[in-house]
Specification:
The structure holds 2 protein chains of 2 kinds. Chain A is 74% helix and 0% strand. Chain A has 11 helices and no strands. In chain A, helix 5 (126-140) crosses helix 6, helix 6 (147-171) packs across helix 8 (188-217) and helix 8 runs antiparallel to helix 11 (271-305). The termini of chain A are far apart. The relative contact order of chain A is 0.13. In chain B, 72% of the residues lie in helices and 0% in strands. Chain B is built from 12 helices and no strands. Chain B has helices spanning 23-64, 67-72, 88-119, 122-137, 140-158, 167-191, 195-203, 208-219, 221-237, 240-245, 263-272, 280-312. Classes of the chains: A mainly alpha, B mainly alpha. Chains A and B meet through helix 1, helix 3, helix 4, helix 5 and helix 6 of A and helix 1, helix 3, helix 4, helix 5 and helix 6 of B.
């Protein structure tokens, strides 16, 4: 019978197409697995190579010509100080710019230029920021190859991240909140500072953490401004014994940071130094992953709890 | 709308003190607005500063080196006594390493995006997306270490002739690194395709795979293309992986099995030495940087146009 034959043909066609579905499912899982497995391999490799070097001494020793006694003291202190400058510069600037673009800006050509600019800045390779800092901060402004120059370079780099996060967090707040505030006679700034900023704080914080995590791992812009790779001293302490108890000499001090210390060890031929590189890499990865994980968790929590 | 300071809003007639128009309050608001505008304007100032600085320093460079020589000479040896200033070897290194990276990142990123957007159960997507984001957060210097000390030895078991530094291993690792950028943006584009298009396709008897390939992907085409462009731009500008694993020797080659330098790796290499401010070697990194900026800018503009288009489709 013709009908039966047609039906069985159609069934084979359907079966074949369903097989394609299955095959793609498997390919998709495999593609996802390649990324996951690469990360596992990377982490496992560094763990095996670097774990034996991780001890208290590793964190409290300066780098040394002898790989066995070399540590990352100057690197992690430098990283913290550079991050301090980066955060101080990028956070107020980024939040301010985000508020302006979202709440104040009228639709005109200047606003559009700023918006296109922020998008474009996010796509500029990080090493270009290093060249900018080298020319502008190091030579033009005379900051030298200092913590200040490095911190500002990284601040410029993460500025778009903070701006975008601020805008998205503020945009998520419904219009009725603003209308309520204005109806009670609040000014624009009172509305922003008493309502919009507190409600969007978690979202902004997420962006700031992601930006700082990225800045911690950035190497290229800091190499470009001429950070030293071998530093066996600490910057001057920011706290003094006598009045006014605070000192800003450290801003102008030469420094090194974790990624540069690691790069320095990787590019040495001796195998013992590569164990040090693995240990430094492990610290770096755990640090950035922890920050990213906090940010992702914050975002997840926000999405779940916020119901306007 | 701003009222002039002398105009009285109607409230003041009944409550002159409390509800009146306050000049001081008005001034404070204007000050804050101006301050916020300045902060927003910083981004424009940064862009202008980048362009001015690169062009200024490159201008001095091009007074020494004719543009023609820069574009056609096949050697890049600016720090040798016999100096040659041809950007081609750096371009070839950049193109080859980015090419290898894209051969990894585009297929894997696309498949991952289709899988996550069309096939994966909710739970898988909820776990996989943040995990991919984490992958994008690993410092690039760590990926460089991984390429040099894990991937290269592994590849040498397959290709015994592979040198210790090669564009191949740098490109492969760079590709894996870029997957999250490509897949996350491509997935967003596919997810914003309205559901009724899929429902229409299913109603015609199409399978999931057919729907994904013939309906969802074409509908999200410009978004997916923008994701690819972003991937290219990342690969071209990526620095530490190539600086560590590809061997920093300017080498005019199209063979990924050889060591070579990219534009970014060259800038790192020169910055590591202590170059005097204003020397020709100092200016070469700005000329190289300008070339890099122009390359990535071209890609970013294409990506921007594509993104704009896919927003307007529905």
């Amino acid at each position: 019978m013709r009908g039966d034959k047609d039906l069985s043909e159609i069934r084979t066609i359907i079966a074949r197409h369903k097989l394609w579905d299955l095959i793609f499912m498997i390919v998709g899982v495999l593609a996802l697995m390649i990324a996951v497995l690469t990360f596992m391999a990377l982490f496992a490799h560094m763990l095996i190579e670097g774990m034996p070097r991780l001890s208290w001494d590793f964190f409290t020793s300066f780098p040394s010509r002898r790989p066995g006694s070399a540590g990352i003291l100057s690197a992690w202190v430098g990283t913290i100080l550079v991050m301090l400058v980066t955060a101080m510069a990028a956070v107020p600037m980024g939040i301010g710019a985000g508020i302006y673009l979202e709440e104040y800006a009228s639709k005109n050509i200047i606003t559009e230029i700023i918006e296109i600019n922020v998008t474009n800045l996010a796509g500029v390779p990080s090493i270009i920021y290093g060249l900018l800092a080298l020319s502008l901060f190091v030579h033009q402004f005379g900051f030298g190859q200092s913590i200040l120059s490095a911190g500002l370079a990284l601040a410029l780099l993460i500025l778009p991240v903070v701006i975008v996060a601020t805008r998205e967090a503020i945009r998520a707040i419904p219009l009725v909140i603003r209308e309520g505030a204005y109806a009670l006679g609040a000014t624009k700034w009172q509305t922003v500072s008493d309502h919009l900023l507190p409600y969007s704080a978690a979202g902004i914080l997420t962006g700031v953490i992601i930006g700082l995590a990225r800045a911690i791992g950035e190497t290229a812009p800091i190499i470009t401004i001429g950070a030293l790779t071998f530093i066996a001293f600490l910057p001057p302490s920011p706290i003094k014994d006598e009045f006014p108890f605070l000192s800003f000499d450290w801003l102008m001090a030469p420094f090194t940071v974790m990624p540069i210390q690691m790069f320095n060890w990787v590019s040495r031929p001796e195998e013992e130094f590569q164990a040090n590189a693995a240990a430094a890499g492990l610290v770096l990865v755990v640090m950035t992953l922890a920050m990213n994980a906090i940010a992702i968790y914050l975002r997840y929590r926000m999405r779940k709890n916020l119901k306007w | 709308m701003q009222l002039p300071a002398t105009a009285h809003p109607p409230d003041e007639i009944t409550h002159p003190k409390r509800l009146g128009y306050s000049y001081r309050r008005h001034l404070g608001e204007r000050f804050i607005e101006a301050l916020l505008f300045l902060m927003a304007f910083v981004s424009v100032a940064i862009t202008v500063a980048i362009v001015v600085m690169l062009v200024k320093e490159s201008f001095v460079f091009f007074e020494h080196v004719p543009l023609w020589e820069f574009l056609t000479d096949t050697q890049w040896t600016p720090l040798f006594d016999d100096a040659h200033y041809g950007i081609l070897p750096l371009i070839s290194g950049t193109v080859v390493s980015s090419g290898v990276a894209l051969l990894v990142a585009i297929p894997l990123g696309t498949i991952t995006a289709i899988y996550l957007s069309e096939f994966a159960p909710f739970a898988v997507r909820e776990v996989a997306k943040p995990f991919l984001e984490l992958l994008g957060g690993v410092p690039t210097v760590v990926y460089g270490y991984f390429a040099l000390l894990f991937v290269t030895p592994l590849l040498q078991k397959i290709f015994p002739d592979l040198p210790g530094f090669s564009l191949l291993s740098a490109g492969l690792v760079m590709g894996i690194m870029i997957i999250p950028y490509v897949s996350s943006m491509a997935e967003d584009a596919m997810r914003s395709v309205p559901m009724h298009l899929r429902e229409g396709s299913y109603a015609m008897g199409a399978t999931k795979f057919q729907t994904a390939i013939r309906v969802v992907m074409p509908a999200a085409f410009s978004g997916i293309a923008a994701a690819y462009i972003l991937g290219i731009s990342r690969a071209v500008g990526e620095t530490m992986v190539v600086a560590i694993a590809a061997g920093m020797q300017p080498n005019l080659t199209w063979n990924p099995m050889e060591p070579a330098a990219t534009i970014t790796a060259y800038i790192v290499q020169v910055s590591l030495g202590d170059l005097p401010h204003g020397s020709i070697g100092y200016q070469t990194i700005f000329a190289a940087g300008l070339t890099l900026l122009l390359l990535t800018l071209a890609f970013n503009i294409i990506g921007h146009v594509l993104r704009k288009r896919y927003r307007e489709v529905y």
